[in-house]
Amino acid sequence: MRVLLIDDHSAFRVNAQRALEAEGHDVVGTAANGESGLRAAHELDLDVVLLDVGLPDISGLEVARQLHEELPSLPVVLISTHDAGDFAELARTNGARGFLSKAELSGEALARLVAVG
Amino acid sequence: MTSLGNSQVNVVRALSASAPGDDVYAFALAAIGNSLGWQFGAAWEPDEPDEKELRCVGTWTDRTIDAAAFETVTRATVLARGEGLPGRVWEDGTAMWLAGAPRDMRLPRRQAVAASGLRTAVCFPLHSERGFLGAIEFFTSAELDADERLLATMDDLGLQVGQLLERRWAEEAAHEGAQRLRAVLEAALDCVVIIDNEGRLLEFNPSAERMFGIPADAALGREIAEVMVPPELRERHRAGLARCAAGESAGLLGTRIETEAMRADGTRFPVELAITQIKASDPPLFAGHLRDITARRRAEDELRASRARIVEAADAARRRIERDLHDGAQQHLVGVALSLRLARQKLEPDDHATARLLDDAIAELTTAADELRELARGIHPAVLVEGGLEPALRGLVARCPVPATLSGIPPQRLPAPVEVTAYFVAAEALTNVARYAQARRVEVTAELRNDVLALEIRDDGRGGADPGVGTGLRGLADRLAAIGGTLQISSDPGAGTALRAEMPCGS
Prior knowledge:
heterodimer, A: alpha/beta, 5-stranded parallel beta sheet, 5 helices, B: alpha+beta, 6-stranded antiparallel beta sheet, 5-stranded antiparallel beta sheet, 16 helices, 16 strands, elongated
């Protein structure tokens, strides 16, 4: 899958990109904030957007809402270190396909969420 | 001697001319003594409160004799009922004549009488509707035979003097009461006003003058509503007064009310008001005590603002700690977890020992990450910041070990202090339900009405929760008070516990 990774933690972007690519996915773009992430989502040819909940400029939930409105066919998966129980429903009500805990991020889990939608 | 009738008239006239505060007995003794030609007089009253003995309470001497020694003895004499001339009058209840006083063995003061040259005495009781009030005796150096007409006149005088005395005492008591009331009103720090049943000001003390910026002369007689009440509150005030005047106090009388008052210059200020009806007044009179609570309100506002700042600062600190954990330790753990998984993927398929080591490390790391996440959420729940109250409470309800429902949470975002307070109220309440209530179910409901969020957590457990025990509920009450909110708990034994928090959401 072609993945856009939006997260303000550079170490996580590196680790996540490495993990996903090890499973055969292609991280075609990364962004460190919501605004550049939205721009990249419109510019790139993508299968999924991995989107951190806590971004420095715009809330990840707000970015998810905008992407759902502007690019409704593009799956968005929210990620965070926070509890999935708190955010899974919130992610869906904001137009995202689902929620993944960062510690449990894997290409397989991501693919499963995208496939469910 | 003048005629008895004239004497009687003179006595009554003299007594009537005395003013409150004058020695009534001095007037009576002088008036009677001078009118009827006696030379020494003494007034006697029963001792209060037992009324077992008579004591001399006043004397009078004309200028024709030197009765100083007898006066001294008389003032020092105490007579039991039946003893001496006044004691016998007390017992018999009628005027008595004593000729040859120095020789009368029943007269305890006979030696002093003899030494003063006094010969004849007369004594009559003072009566009123209450009964015996005392006795008045007169002495003269003349040897006089008993005069029945004079005795009858004395009895009449005793009744008239008694009634006058009684009236004068009542007047003096009333005067003293009025003086005391005046002194209290003058010295009162509170504003005190008295109004009639139509609201006209009858009393306006110096504090009221200062508080309302209007002299009493200008206020008295005017309607209180016009002098002290802001225009938009006047009709309500008049309606309340009408209810009180009609005997329907509707909770107004005897309670403290906080309202707004208006000075003569139109400026307004908050007051605490207590209204009482003055007893036995018909038509009714009402006394109002007003206290300017501007300073208290300001202090309360400052205290509330100070508490709010402390709570906000604490919340900000908690949020900062949560952010630090999220951006620091949690991200590092995530990085390590992802790296370990990657390493696990790249292992040679038959390197089982390393695989086990990595699996153990990943499991340990996951546990550490979970614990850190729980810690961070307890410090400040990120879901509250990101999603607001509804998803945050939904998470709480989902994690509650007692079956719980959630309803009525307003979907819109509320002021951050309200969201945080509501969250911690619900968290503490649900924790208490799980720990102590032995409940089968718990309901979390909320309602936003008139800019006030009411949050209620009601369980069907054993009840009997004591808000005074432990710091949790007290802490919640403090936290609510800091944002102007309130906490109510009802927890009768066996009837479950309902905790209701109300929080103003306006600016």
